[in-house]
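From the pipeline queue, job 12 of 40. The input is one protein chain; the requested action is below.

Action: predict structure.
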Amino acid sequence: MRATGVGSMPGEDYAESVKAVLGTLDDLAFVPELPARGVGAQMIGRSLAFLEGLGADLQPGGWRLLDASGVDHRRARSLLAQDLDVVEELAQGRQGAVKQQVAGPWTLAATVELQRGEKVLSDHGARRDLAHALASGLTDHVASLRRRFPGVELVLQVDEPMLPAVLSAQVPTSSGFGRYRTVHPPEADALLRVVVDAVREAGASPVVHSCAADLPVELLRGAGFDAISFDLSLDTSSGGDAWAEAFEAGTDLWPGILPSTDAALDSSASHRTLEAWFDRLGFAEDAWHDRVVVTPSCGLAGATPAHARQVLAELAALAG
């Protein structure tokens, strides 16, 4: 069993966050995101920094795609490069795996606007173009990570918190008075595969993460992800068969088992919960122990720095 973080960390001191991650997680460190530093460091702004061939800019209503990069998009790209320089410097000689996070094509499509003001989700061609721009950018990014961290296992985590809403027509239109139409599973699968295939061909392991309830487990498994990262505290009992089938088919599971905001921590109780959940799925510990990565329930940006460090330390101890 291994341990890692979902991605976000509290505060604005990037070097300190990197030191906390590298000093705690020996087997699977992650490149931290510090949303408190501003929009370019938050999930959507940072993820847009990966796009190849598409520009973006920050408007009063949020991020919007453009033919060329605006000043905020250029700043997001610059900040990402600076952060990776810090991680590279502090991780010299490291042997454990390294994980990078990025928002997936459906979460971006449900969040980012087109030039006319509607979300990318409203346009079939635009959401396809966005997925391909993301895949192309991730191909280059994985190559960059390989140069920065030679010889180590690379993991690319695709964050899709909006996917359940996309599939159930729950994403509001820009006016707020309507909802975008349902995206059917075959199309959702196709664009996820564009990203999965690009990441794998570039030499990284694709993992999908979502803190949302009602995850489409069968869809995520079918799209080809190596693992699914999720919040174990959410009610997953109704989807037990899907989880068991995914695990039997070779998809590893990354359960979020410790609270991501300040709360009492009880790693022993969390381990018992983990055992009980797998027992309900029909797997003894010797069947799942080596295929599980434990994480916080979600990102740690809303926690105090002390709690975030404690969560990572508890997870590392539990994995050990």
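Job complete. The chain has one domain: 2-319.
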